[in-house]
Amino acid sequence: MRIVVLGVGNILLSDEGLGVRAIERLPLACALPPTVELIDGGTSGMEMLEELEGLDALIIVDAVRAGRAAGTPIRLAGDAVPVFFKTRLSPHQVGLCDVLATLELLGRAPKHTAILGLQPQSLALGMELSREVEAGMPELLRMMINELLMLGIGASPATIKAR
């Protein structure tokens, strides 16, 4: 089984860097088996094509604008994933949309794709997450671990605390 947890975002734009920050913290929250690969996708696009090809599961972690209160956890899977890419909830969707569409065309798309994230408070210039998003980080990490558990991947959770 091959699973990628892909954190995307621009760490120079406060909450926009959520996915990358979550990927940095996940190994501190739990022990992951070697079948799970963490990728800091930053603001990458088509250059990730080969890394995401033929996966059993892809978990994308990103700031997701869904018109909810800042820090609200969001999970999209199944039929909601294509809708996510049609409604431009995240600035990375164009690159990821192209990658996933190309993989689908090649018959090499992930068997399971889920998008996990939090509603951002701020996308302004800054290296720190907003208070609201930082407060939601423990729940996002739990969601990531639960997604892995649903896939049959044992991740040994540690005590997760907000910074």
Key phrases:
163 residues, 4 helices, 5-stranded mixed sheet, globular, two-stranded antiparallel sheet, 7 strands, disordered C terminus, alpha/beta, 33% helix, 22% strand, single chain
Characterize this entry briefly.
The chain has 163 residues and is of the alpha/beta class. Helix content is 33%, strand content 22%. Helix 1 packs across helix 4.
> Which band does the percent of strand residues land in?
15-25%
- The average pLDDT value, as a whole number, equals 87
**Low-confidence segments:** 159-163
Total beta strand runs: 7
Number of helices in the DSSP assignment: 4
Distance between the termini: 33 Å
Q: What percent of residues adopt helix (DSSP H or I)? A: 25-40%
Rg estimate, integer Å: 15 Å
**SSE order:** EHEEEEHHEHE
Lateral strand order in the biggest sheet: 3-1-4-6-5
Structural class from helices and strands? alpha/beta
Largest sheet entry: 5 strands, mixed
Global outline? globular
